[in-house]
Specification:
- It is a single chain.
- The protein is an all-alpha fold.
- The chain has a domain of 47 residues.
- The protein contains three helices and no strands.
- The site of zinc ion has 4 residues, from helix 3.
Length: 75
């Protein structure tokens, strides 16, 4: 018979209930986060030149430091 160093008030066979992961509640937020991240990565990494959605260079200049910080090719 095994003896524990610290006595437990629980029954010997008591196991914790498995944690319920509410996938249906998390899924819309996960999709939103993925779309938001994709948009941010696009604007930081690819909004310039032939792939630019908006004219001018103001988005490129606005995200310029972030582009270099993340290692995207720039100039
Ligand atoms: Zn640059």
């Amino acid at each position: 018979m095994a003896q524990h160093a610290v006595p437990s008030a629980e029954a010997p066979d008591a196991r914790p209930a498995p944690v319920r992961v509410p996938v249906r509640e998390i899924l819309p937020w996960a999709v939103f986060a993925v779309v938001l991240a994709a948009v941010l990565i696009y604007f930081v990494g690819a909004e310039q030149g032939a792939t630019s959605v908006f004219g001018g260079t103001w988005i490129h200049e606005f995200t310029h430091d972030g582009r270099h910080l993340l290692g995207f090719p720039c100039h």
